[in-house]
Amino acid sequence: MAEKKNTAEKKKTTEKKDTAEKMKTAEKKNTAEKKKTAEKKKTTEKKDTAEKMKTEEITEMSVEDKLRALYELQKVDSGIDRIKILRGELPLEVQDLEDDVAGLETRITNFEKEISALQEAIAKKNNEIQNSQALIKKYQEQQNNVRNNREFDSLSKEIEYQTLEIELSEKRKKEFTQQADEKKSFIEESQKLLDERKGDLETKKTELSEIIEDTKKEEEQLVKRSKEIQSKIEQRLLAAYQKIRNNARNGLAVVTVQRDACGGCFNKIPPQRQLDIRSRKKIIVCEYCGRILVDFDRDEQENN
Ligand SMILES: [Zn+2]
Q1: Main-chain phi, psi angles of 3, to 5 degrees
Q2: What does pTM read for this prediction?
Q3: How far is the CA of 292 from the centre of ligand 1 (A)?
């Protein structure tokens, strides 16, 4: 009877031990798997949360924060616009100076041509004067050998005519010389102007290459900043901003109230609407131009 009991107990113990071990193993396995699944779940959740948070962050942004982000974005984008305008205007200035230089050079060349034409005309008059003087000499000699008064008078008339011709030529010569002198002083003036313009042109060219160099870096930084801000703004609002900006000639989509008027189109804004803008509780657009109106410039002025 005692032996039976003993065996029974042994069996029980063994069985218990077995079960315990089995259970332990099972538990271990289970825990491992559970852990694995949990980790997997965690990763997926983390990813989900990150995305959710981003969306939530954007959608949970207060209207004021949205407006502030748009205002910041506008400032950065306007900075990019300014650089683009600057880079566009300076080449035009250089082009203008190049045109000026070319124009002055042409003017000087033309004056020089006119002067040499005048000098040729003066030389021609000198020849004519010499010819007339030779003719006069010849007629005077002939007068010494005339047969009658009529021949003498006729030669006298020829001499008179040639004398008048000489006078006329001298008068013309004087005029031509005057004209040539005038043109010479024009050339001097133009040359001075040309030297100035050439100096300006060199300066502008240097400025242009420096600006292109500098603004490239600045623009890259601004574009980066613009993208950063854009990523914080919800898609629909950003699209609206871009649309207004593209339609506006000055690239302004977000403007401040200036002297009770819209900073974009300068139409008056009613007092109630201005209060709405100041409350920053909803997005207010200008009823005339559709630009988004903000009042953050007041904060800036206070801070300064
Ligand atoms: Zn407006």
Answers
A1: -65, -40
A2: 0.52
A3: 8
